[in-house]
Amino acid sequence: MSKKVCMFVWNHFTNDARVFRECSALSEAGYEVDLVAIHDWKDEKLLLHEQHKNGFEVFRVKNRIPGLHKYAGKMKKLFVLGLVGLIMLLFLGIIPKNILAIVSLPIFAIMAGIVFAMTKTKLPKLLTRAFIFFQMVHKGHSKRYDFYHSNDLNTLLQGVLSAKLFRRRKLIYDSHEVQTSRTGYNSRIYGIMERFLLRFVDEMIAENHTRAKYNENLYGIYPNVVHNYPIPSRPETSSEVNLHGLLGLPETEPILLYQGGIQIGRGLEKIVDAVPLIERGTVVFIGDGRLKRDLERMVCVKGLSERVMFIPKVPVDELLHYTRNAYLGFQVLNNVCFNHYSASSNKLFEYMMSGVPVIACSFPEIQKVVENENIGICVDSHDPASIAEGVNYLLNHPALRKVMSRNCLTAREKYNWMNEKQNFIDIYESA
Predict the structure, then answer these.
(1) pLDDT (tens digit, 9 = 90+) per residue, 107-163?
(2) Cβ(327)–Cβ(255) under 8 Å?
(3) What Å distances lie between residue 69 and 124, 237, 329, CA to CA?
(4) Which of 93, 106, 137, 348 has its C-alpha lying 20 to 30 A from 242's C-alpha?
């Protein structure tokens, strides 16, 4: 009988390449895998339950409490109408003021409190997150699973309650990020939570050895290392996407590509600042994120709209067909937290898979790969002039760029998931 795995992830599972690879690897190795993700009520095409073609099942829990927003809206309308009616009654003198005060003011005070809480505070978001959390735990107890797998800290408590409450099952904690030093995670509570919950974890996974060493220094635990390498492919032979044609660019125009989340700390503003110093080429951003509107405004204000273009995010399995069109790719993280400084970066390996040399930050894990394999140039990612200098060097040395492109295609035979996934399966086999 195959062993059952319940895996948790705090996203919609629409573009999570790492989780996709892990679920597929487990299914291929004979495990029965249920992935518990989050539904998006705004997306009518997203299924609550689906049988993935790679052999695992996806269960998405609802991310909207039935009636919460509807009744909050009705309460707000009722409050406004009641308040208008109260003022009219007072103005017309139909009912004495003292009676109105005794009967209606406490009711309106309660209604006002509810309306304020539902529209002006984080209460709806907190209630929704609690709703998601308890649905995940309920799903975790719905079967007699042999393993529980929590992706990142935001699903670790769900894993602990599912694996250790009323039962003793193996719990694997897959930390994709450095939870105690990353953008948006500035509170000490995350470190306190992680330290406490690690007591219940049987096996921990980190993305690379720099992060594993960091965890050892912090908690005395050296995690298993499973690198975030892509599945090998041959995108250079594809002609499915002509990015030059899609953007209306001449075939001779070098595309200087950034693909991924448009988020703070990824050096994207520095790329835009570097554009006036870059001798030729069009910078193309593929992806979405909180910073995108600000970046688009920045491009407009600087008068760079003809040299910087934006494309919405594309499905993971289609992305490399876009990537292959680029002359070079950017991976210029800024050192805003240890999470960025220690990153291996899936983008680096996606560029590599497509034969695209990189302009990369000089951080340990990234620099080691770029320089050892000679697949790009490391720059000071905080300095637009340094970024532009690296770009111009590759633009003016096309023969070197061709060598680096060939090196990418050689290096991808080493840095790929087919080589790495056995390390991942071994964790389950030895747990």
Answers:
(1) 555 555 555 555 566 667 888 899 999 999 999 999 999 999 999 999 999 999 999
(2) yes
(3) 8, 50, 43
(4) 348
